[in-house]
Structure formats: structure tokens, C-alpha cells
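seq as requested:
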Amino acid sequence: MTDMDFVTISSGDLTARIALFGAELWSLTDHAGLEYMTDADPAFWTGHAPILFPIVGALNGNRYRLGDREYELPKHGFARHSLFELVEIAGDRVRLRLRDSDETRKVYPFAFTLDLDFRLEGMSLHTQATVTNAGGEVMPFSFGYHPAFAWPLPGGAAKADHTIAFEQPEPQPIRRIDMPTGLVLPEPVATPVEGHLLTPEPAQFETDALIWDRLASRALTFGAPGGGQLAVAFPDTPMLGIWQKPGANYLCIEPWQGIADPLGYTGEFRAKPGVLSLDPGANRSFRMDVTVLTAD
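C-alpha cells:
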């Protein structure tokens, strides 16, 4: 992509660079030029922060059913592969928009708008996604964020010293993914969180993401003592995925409203776990706030 394919906003303390393709956050740097996002090493994964809509995760056979009709969608939906419209931009904020089209209605038969608002305030990036039902029937959908943060974060701390501190204790079991289908296994497994604290290790991700479908927290802190730290708040999303390609220099912290199909799922899309229903003319917003706590 060229510079014309990106927008850049700044608060003076932070600068964000966002691609129009996928409304994807590519870079978040502080005043010293330190980068808090993934290095996107192609040996592992070239994504940065995909937007997941109208599904999160994989479908059984990449297909879903609405009534007596079937449709096909790739993992995480089509928003991440779509060109967003630049609606407005100021020095510290930008709004990008995706509308339904002939192409989207072939795979998702609903009229919608998806707005992504990015706003910088001091050392915080506030992102809000708003899904609007622009049609005349109830619209089922899911939504998710998928930001890949640098691991290790800038600041000099070792990768192994990084932890995730959840806002609340997280004793509930978690979900894992069936490989290679990408679907959710039926039996939960014991959580790797001890009290509030998760110590991420590459081996944890050899069978894909750690998934919380009964999450108590709506905020967490990622980082290491004496190094960089990020506070991530996600008040509107009840599920969370944490993922990396083992050995890569990023960690994805993914607030979700929705989840992959359960293994063997053949039910109607509207009945799938995590799917919301939006009345005609109604909208639903999902916020994520990322704050740089230390930039030393």
C-alpha cells in the first residue's frame, strides 16, 4: 500500500497510522517514536489489527444458515478485506465507514453501515465501532477487535517478564480451538490465569488462541515491570481471545462479541453463541481504549 492508502492522526503524545483497507490500525507510536504495535514479520503473520465483522472466528465448513438458505463467509468475515470510506478527519481523530454492497449482500444479505471512529487523547487511543442496521429486518451479527501489540513492548523489559493482569480474577475454564477446523472444542479446559495474572508463553498458542467465553473482566494491563505497559479497556465485549504465532514478536489481545462455531455446529446463525440481533434502524457500539502507561 502507498501513503495514499493510510490516514494518520496525532495527539502530540501518540501518533496512529490507520489503513483505509480494513480500517486496520498499523502503527501506534509515542513522541519518542517507540512502536507499540506488531512488527508484522511475514515469517509469522502480516496482520496488524483486523476488524472482525459480521462474524468472529471460523464457521463450520465456512458456511452458515439463515432459515432455509446457506451462505459462505471466510474466517472473521469480510470487513478486514474491505475498503473503508474516509468520512471525516481532524488532527486527532478520524471516522471510516463500510456500507453494504452488491458483493457483501451475496454473502451476508443485510443492509448495514459499520463506522470505525479512532480518537487520540494524550497517551490513549479510543476506538469505537458502531454497527447500524440500515435495512428493514432484524439483523444478526458478531463483532470483534484483533490488535497485535508488540511483545516485548518498548522499554527494555524481557519478553518472558511480560504479564497480563486482568481487572477481575478469572477462575472460569477457557475454550480452545480444534485444529485444523478452527472451531471451538466442546469441553472447556482449566484456565492458565492465576488469580488476576496470566503469564503468556509461546507454547500456550501451539493450538491457536486462548478463548474466554465467560469473562469477568472488561479491562486488563499488558506489560512488564520496568518496561512498557498498556492498559486495554473493552467495556462492551463479553469475550476475549489472546493469540500469537508461537515465537512471533506480537501478542493479540482481542475483545470479542462472538466466537467461532462450536465443533460440528449445524444450527441457525441467529442461534449461534455470541450472535446479537439488531432491530431495523438500531445501532450497537463497541469501544476499545488503549492507554500507554509507561514509555520509558
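Residues 103 and 263 are 28 Å apart (CA to CA).
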